[in-house]
Task: structure prediction
Amino acid sequence: MSDGINNKDNHGATAQQDRKTLAISLRRGGIDVRRCCGTEAELFAVEVDASIPEGEKVIEEAVYTTPSLLGDYAQTVIVVDTPCFTLVPQEVADDREALEAIRGLMWPDAQADAVTVSPAADGMAVVASVDPALTGFVSRTVMDVMLK
Result:
């Protein structure tokens, strides 16, 4: 019995199988990567000079030594470890002025374009301050990226 939905393309592959995603976790000395396509997943690490501070330079070096990270992915998620984060109601996270007030009060040294918002559970959102050099490099280099 058919439900009337056909996700197959002309080659017989489902749309889900063709959807490639990339998840990157930054750490000192490199990045950890999970590359997925359908039900297949590949896990690997890219090591860089351990003297490079965590952040923009780590991902920049990793991307230059592993060009496949710049492939055509439906979604790229970069997980950033930052001590500058807080949980707020989603309505607050949707309000640009409220985000500016939060940034100014909690992280006065952070630059305005360095605030990211990630949805959380039960109508909440995580608001974080991320190094603007990192967000700048990632937005210039990676298509459809989400920082978390």
Remarks:
- The first strand starts at residue 20 and ends at 27.
- The chain has two domains: 15-81+131-147, 85-128.
